[in-house]
Amino acid sequence: MSEPPATSGRRRPGRTGRTGRTGRDRRPHLRAAAAIAITTVVGVIGACTGTSGQQVEVAAEDRADDRSTTSTTQAPDCAQMLPVEARAAQLMLVMVTSPNAAADALAAGQVGGFGLKGNQTKDVGSQIADAVEGAPITPMVGADEEGGTVQRLRLALGEIPSAATVAEGTPEEAAQQAGEHAAAMKQLGFNVNFAPVADVGSGSGLGTRSYGDDPATVSRFVEAVWPAMQRKGVLPVIKHWPGIGGGSADPHAKLTSLDSIDELRARDLVPFRTAITAGVPAVMVTHAEIPGLTQDGEPASLSSAAITGELRGTEGFKGLVITDSLGMGAIARTDTQAEAAEKAITAGADIAMVSGSEVVPEVHARLVEAISSGRIPPDQVLASVRRVLAAKGVDGQCLDAVARYSAIARQGTTTTAATGGATQTVLPGSSVPTGSNGSSSTSSTVRNGTASSGSGRAGSTSTTSTPRRSSTTVVTGIND
Predict the structure, then answer these.
(1) Of 377, 365, 312, residue with least CA distance to 339
(2) Is residue 417 part of a domain?
(3) Does 314 score more than 60 pLDDT?
(4) Residue 265: is it exposed, middle or buried by C-beta count within 10 angstroms (0-12/13-18/19+)?
């Protein structure tokens, strides 16, 4: 657990930091400033959490993910204040069959949200309320409410028509229906809908999930539907970028190859570009190979050329990028979900969607280690976490969340690594110690609210587990 390191200033959100220089070494002054800053934050956290005189302290640690600085003294934002474990969690969303299945991972601070797959019962609202109660940061709660064959809440909210049926009416009628359904979802506790489908055509197993074969028609309906959801407080996630309507294989089963990027730009990408221009807040990237853009056998969801180069660069999308489920057959053929999650975040995705609560500890541990070691660039991590927090409505500082993660760390198991005697704290259910930086000789812990670092108690040795490649479950259900 750590505070952002003391520097000559703080990086402004969304800007690349620049380090001010002087003619002499000011590090002693900076260390003094850091001590004052940490004491101040600790006092405020204690006041915010009502700890009856008990001080909540977060370990200070010089991690790679906070090294960029500016010449100002602006206070850190929430993304900078959060420990690496919390940052990793915000970059994950798990698909489960019931809210209860996500409750433990949420309470352990290992995941930033969950989505529901399979038909839900009429009690889903109360189940969501129970599941999110222990989460240290407001979680995303989503479902695939497209209508027709893909609708998880039909028992709770009733049937809604498929996109193909909706397209027989007008965009205005589609917006009315989408807004009413989003409002009902919000009442149950949902804040995300993995819809609408912006694919052109019925290929790749889509069938009636698409609004049609004409890019202009699909664009009109998508442009009407997603704002209607957003106005009711539900985050719309248009999918499946860059468009799988012309594909031949279903990504649930195997990797599909699409038309060339030039052909996609002329047809399949049209509805996505229209939505991006209008300000759509979130896009789901699919597992499909794009000739002329991705490498052979590389899905767009794991491709920097696709996400960072095309979606963010060429198309100018600045919102939230979410992968489709990494439990699908298109991914399982080559990667575990943990491996795929790191690749996706490194490629530029903000949220890696995984399938099954049982994989959360391994995926979380992998991301913690990748962030701590610097394999995922620090500035990129902060930018993604900021986008996730913004989508959740978290703005400015988040002292309460930092305090909750401090409490979670204290509930973890403190061990002394046999390889060097470094004391390490392991989050409940996690296999990677907090503060892991790729080195076996140093670490930082939160013990009884007090930050400490260095070697453990003399003569005490025990080992911490390390991530292992798990068996892969191939998800074949519709739109996991």
Answers:
(1) 365
(2) no
(3) yes
(4) middle
> Strand pairing of 413-416 and 423-426?
antiparallel
Range of the domain at 232: 84-392
Please report whether residue 356 resides in a domain. yes
Contact assessment for residue 241 and residue 284, using Cβ atoms and an 8 Å cutoff: yes
pTM to 2 decimals?
Answer: 0.75
Contact between residue 255 and residue 300 where contact means Cβ atoms under 8 Å apart:
no
Quick check: helix, strand or coil at residue 13?
A: coil
Burial of 217 (0-12, 13-18, 19+ CB in 10 A): middle
Q: What tens digit of pLDDT does each residue of 50-67 get?
A: 333 333 333 333 344 444
**Which one, of 401, 423, 404, lies nearest residue 414 by Cα?**
423
pLDDT over 90 for what percent of the chain? 67
**Mean pLDDT throughout 382-391?**
98
C-beta separation of 195 from 153 below 8 A: no
What would the mean pLDDT of 229-239 be, rounded to a whole number? 99
53 in a structural domain: no
* Phi, psi (degrees; rounded to nearest 5) at 464: -105, 145
Rounded CA gap, 318 and 180, in Å?
A: 28
**Nearest 5°: phi and psi at 295?**
-75, 165
| Residues marked as catalytic | 252, 324
d(CA 434, CA 105): 16
**Within-domain flag for 469:** no
Structure tokens that stand for 275 in this block: 């939505």
432 to 79, 238, 270, 436, 440: CA distances (angstroms):
21, 34, 43, 7, 12
Distance CA 196, CA 224 (A): 10
For 148, what's the count of Cα atoms within 13 Å in the CB-facing half-sphere? 19
What CATH number is associated with residue 247?
3.20.20.300
Go through 317-336 and write b for each residue having 16 or more CB atoms within 10 A of its CB, e for each that does not: bebbbbbbbbbbbbbbeebb
Please give the residue that has the higher pLDDT: either 31 or 196. 196
Helix (H/G/I), strand (E/B), else coil: 433: strand
Q: What is the dihedral of CA 97, 101, 107, 111, to 10 degrees?
A: -40
Phi/psi at 197 (nearest 5 deg)?
-80, 125
Report the domain count for the chain.
1
Alpha helices in 19-83 (DSSP H): 27-49, 78-81
